Amino acid sequence: MSMRRHGFWIGALCVLALAYGLTLAIRNEYAFFAGFIILQFIVLATAWNILGGYAGYVNFGTSAFFGIGVYTAIFLFKALGAPLLVQMAGAAVMGALLGFVTGLLTLRLHGIFFSIATVAMTIILETLVINWKYVGGATGIQVLRPPVTEPFDSYIKMLFVIGVALVIVAVALSRHVQGSWIGRGLRAIRDDETAAECTGVPTLRLKLLACSISGALMCAAGAPSAMYLQFADTTSAFNLNYSVSALAMSLIGGTSHWAGPVLGAIVLGVTQQALTVTISSELNVLVLGVMLILFVVGAPEGLLGLLRKGWARLARGGGS
Amino acid sequence: MKRLDLIKGAAAAALAAIGLGMPAIAQQGPIKIGMSMPLTGGLAAGGKSSLVGIEVWRDDINAKGGLLGRKVELVVYDDKSSASETPAIYAKLLDVDKVDLLFAPYATVPTAPLMPMVKQRGLLLIGNFSFQVNHTVKHDMWFNNAPWGPADTWPRNFVDLGIKHGAKTIAIIAADQEFAQNLAKIAKGIAAEKNITVVYEQNYPPATVEFSSMVRAIKASKADMVFVMSYPPDSVGLLRAVQEIGVGPSVKIFGGGMVGLQFSNIMESMGSLMNGVVNYNSYLPEKSMDFPGAKAFFEKYQKRAVEAKVDPLGYYLAPFGYAMGQMVEQAAHATKSLDHKTLAAYLRANTIQSIVGPMEFAADGERKVSTTLLAQFRGVVDKNIEQFRQPGKQIILLPEAFKTGDVVVPFEKARQ
Questions:
Q1: Which residues from chain B sit within 8 angstroms of residue A32, using beta carbons?
Q2: Are A44 and A242 in contact (CB under 8 A)?
């Protein structure tokens, strides 16, 4: 176990070093712009999966968390001139608190009713921010990011590396949750919450924990977006697209394992970016819709499920 | 085939992404003008119409032998009407497509994230109908095609018109969205400055469709003028409520900033309900606005608009898309250069002759003088789109240079 854990962290360090290496090697900044968006979606999908995949509570409020992350960063930047990492930490704290409140909703709401409540939460929070003039309200707000800090030569490259670091944190947390008593408890809740409660699983505590971790990660993913765009408006920050994408990415990748959302986010994120600059019309919305339907019908366990099946068939074939 | 294209596209993107992109193309190839445009999402109707305008310019200039002897090519991506899409798209336009010039997408929100980017990279950006987007960034190579001019001119014109006809009080209604809120803030400032009492003030959430309570409140407030800043669905809802309930005989002028009453489909469906409304506009087919090239442009546009299924009249945005092209055309021909700094210096110092009239730019890149029209709908009948191609349906009240008639007050009389 400890060897495997070290293996993960060594791998993570290598990925981080590779990301930094890329910022030195590649001059073309488009790669980092597009890459940053994909990294953002990996974090969102991974965070969504902690609650949605492991515990089976389908959260449609990803955009609420993302938006709060964006606006926490804007607030901290405008009020205190806080640097990016402080903005992200602040957003994570806000996210954890908001997640905690969402977790309390699960006391009374299950299944579809919980999902509807999370959509309502997005609308409520968006309306609140629309009426908060200090952070721009309905008019939106432009911010000018500070100069880039060493050792990076451009801000977008720095954001890219920070994005990679955030992905590592998200995956590490998701992996830890999955493999520990928390994950076992969440899976018990997903299968039968009453039975879990009766057998002594601390269901409320686990749900609160999962909601807080998931919320913190989603908000932390939203925070750098403020400095990425140097602009925030409620329509973009609370865009339902984040909720739908996070969910679709997890479903396409597979919800049972931490690698599923990562894989799903990479596949869907890359496709989205490629479609934006190739087809670039209504058709690209259609392509994504068709992809989602195909996966839900053809591969209900997602890409991971397909890979597992393929692997098992290969193994059987090899053995015979 | 599509799939193959997709794979090819993705492969090209992947190659470019890992830095194997070709070096800058030969200098004498076509001149590429890059932009994103809202082709899907909430701003798509405007975006598509604007793009047709730009395409007509591209074809015109290519028919004349190109820009500086080089063919003009447009590189356009869909930004889905979202601010979060544009930075990556413009990075691709600059770093992968290596475009020579940049046009901004239609509207403020998708443009806002680009402003710091073009400032940091020192690039010329031709704006497309955004509102006060350079206010924070203060980029000195930004030039907006929109007729707005100084931010307060247009609400000021409306308030002044009311005062001229004896108004002492105002009711202000604004949608909780970017453009409307910006204007509402300015209108309130002007009212305070002119000692006009705000007797009713209401912001409403963007999805509101039922306005009868607001219209009743306006009627009860006995305001002398009603300044409305609404978006297309709300403009429709408001006018229907006004038709049903009325705003009372005290109201001299009604309207101001109602978005939507410039779009063909809404104009056609609202018909006579618009009569009497004094609203902003950008371009109207009146004699005073018959600038060289305008007629020929609309003939071409209106033919294409049918095929492209976009706004068949196209007065509001499309000629300004064409004018964006004319801005770079005149600057490039005069300076014999495509250098962004040189072009910006020219645009700052010279008057551009365009199909929407002469354009002069102030230090902030907005028009030196506002040419935003205040026009009153008059004698409009129901379900007839052709009537709007003729002069006389929207009388231009301001600015003086384009004036075609006087306002009819009070509002209820003008509606008859």
A1: 91
A2: yes
